[in-house]
Protein: Sigma-70 family RNA polymerase sigma factor
Amino acid sequence: MDTPPPGGRPLPSFRPVATAGAGPVNQPLPFRSPGRPGPADLAEVMEQVARGDKQAFSTLYDALAPMVFGIVVKVVRDRAQSEEVAQEVMLDLWRQAARYRPDAGSVTTWTATLAHRRAVDRVRTVQAAADREQAQAAREHHTAFDEVAEQVETRLDSEQVRRCLRGLTELQRQAVTLAYYGGLTYREVAQTLRTPLPTIKTRMRDGLIRLRDCMGVTT
Structure:
């Protein structure tokens, strides 16, 4: 996230860097300080961050951002989303610094836990959204064809179906055929025809209306 901490200083950003023997990969900014703070130093830095010290936060960011990004990208597996999640974790450190307790573990361990939790939450959110979209597409698919399909099989002969199909546009005919005879979902039809999903949904709806009217099916 790009929300700056109090005081107006924006969070440092992630950018692609090259590693030896490999192509460009997305990794956090390198350390600006000459050495990494040790566990005791990080605990002290965290205390300063909890008091609103922006310079201390910059030091904390440099020390922990590479680790955070590494943890997140292993779970999320998507570079752009990993950058977003990593920034969210760093914002969590700024906002929740006062909640850190040294007796519960090191700053590094606490941060790693936050990073992993955030990454898992993102994966679950993305998967849930995909599941909802797939379920909605399936419902739309079945609802649309329930108006026509059952009555086509019981009341209309194949010649009439073929005649009515010829009255559709090429895209409508292909989409309806793949969905009705092939049993494909809207998304699968879109992938097969290499056509955007919204276009397929619109053409399918219009095609089914024309097909229903042609065959004299009442709903």
